[in-house]
Please model this.
Amino acid sequence: MKRSFLVLLTSVILVGFVSARAQTGADSLLKGKSIEKELKGGESHSYSLAVDKGEFVYVEVDQRGIDVVVRVYDPTGKKTDEVDSPNGERGPEPVVITPDIKGVYRIEVGALEPTAKPGRYAIELKMQHPSATTLAGKVDQLFVLWDRKDSPGAAVAVTKDGNIVHARGYGSANLEYDVPITPSTIFHVASVSKQFTAFAITLLAHQGKLSLDDDIRKHLPEMHEFGTPITLRHLIHHTSGLRDQWESLAMAGWRLDDVITKQPNKRCMSRTSLTRLERFRRPANP
Model:
């Protein structure tokens, strides 16, 4: 009798599972278990995930030869998110879910292009735990995608009233030598600084401390006279007419992997190098 009961109970469970799978048409996501499938244009695959209100859920879709778009639907069927990173056919699509309601969420993975050739992808539930309540934990959740050794990352500092209240590094500064990013890691900010410089100049203009149409030599009198005025507006909009610095340095015999410092050296300050640089400068259009 007991054996018959166990067989019957097992059958009921299996039938229920198969029935639920048939109704949702979705594979269940389990933490740490990767599911890999082939996908082509016009197709989509669905996955189900039971979550609780107030949780932090991180799902990663690794594109392996096809560009996908990931859509998230809550238990009522409402679409709550759509993810399509600029990674193209290779790399992760990070999906973060912070549910407002408890229930089974559906994650749909589809080909971005209707005519896309077949390619593969893998989907995995990376994290599922209560949302952070501390400042440090909330920052960690924001940078979860980059918080690993095989990823580029960032050095983050949170300030309050002029004081640093949280600082941490995420990702790797150098993959070859396994060097992690720390709060003191130095970055070559390069062109990232342009938007902040332009914003600062615009603020000064609004305060009446300068004009965007000022000749730059008014503020930088040591600047070379090109015969045609170059204004702050020209510099902000990249319309000064000056050659790109990398092209000029290449013409002067520099290599892109040469060390760049703020201190003048014989090579960059020699009369020959300066003459060659001056020769290739072009004045701005009035």
Remarks:
- The first strand starts at residue 26 and ends at 28.
- The radius of gyration is 28 Å.
- The chain has three domains: 27-131, 133-185, 191-279.
- The longest helix spans residues 2-24.
